[in-house]
């Protein structure tokens, strides 16, 4: 199903590992170049600015092809309006396939055709169904999932997650006020189920090529789970969807549950992240704590903003200071010391030896001796009778 040669995908992973070892000081620049030379890989672009530039260039190429097709089909008028979006989507799919055969991946050009195809597919379905959101989200989700499975495109996985969430939301709207009322709980259950599902798939994954995409989906589930029952989100959506008017002295239904959820979930994220050493969940827990504080302050301004910011800064400084004091001497687990992969000299010689023996490289060795030779007066003797 994957469009790329799996050997080249493996080579790309090895080159990424070599780059990590080089940045950590485990191998030299020459060794890194030797590895890159010996392992042919896909045409990718790690520089985000250059990748954006190629994306703009690919978008121009894509729009030029679609414009040329429009010149021939414009005379069909209404018929072309109905099928034009599908034709443009097919152009995007075909362009993505051609670029994949030429080993372009995460380059910018392929991004333009993949995202362009998904956009055109959504527009085409919207024209056909006269803006039926549920059907649009369904077909875009299918297209995005195909793009991820076929081309290992991370942005397509993000589009898939957003589309599936939109499909859930618009599907709940079909049930009227009842569906809108239980939407937070449906979204919470949906996010929780898919979080553990992606976790299980990642654990039993046989092909590592899909790991990053599943990791992205897993993080998206964490974000959706928190926002699904966050008090601010639920209260504002209740006003937008149900027309609920919260008067002074009143509150939304199940308010205490949403209050508790808003503050308990960030703590659960934090404790679980520390227990499992999950860095993504750790950062999300920090952001969730900050948003929870913002949620309460949005409705209840207990202190003036300048006082609240000052006190918050003092609390954060105290937490950071005592955490550093506590963790700075720890060698394992949760520690304040830098990653060994980035700042370590302990295993430098061992790692270089492994790489050298693997690729047949012979590093230059210069021997320094405390004794001086070469002044001998006898043939080959090397000494003059004194040290």
TrEMBL record:
Keywords tagged on the record: Membrane, Transmembrane, Transmembrane helix
Transmembrane segments: 48-73, 79-100, 112-129, 135-152, 157-175, 181-197, 209-234, 254-274, 281-301, 307-324
Presence of the UniProt keyword Iron-sulfur in the record: no
Protein name according to UniProt: DUF2157 domain-containing protein
Species, as recorded: Flavobacterium potami
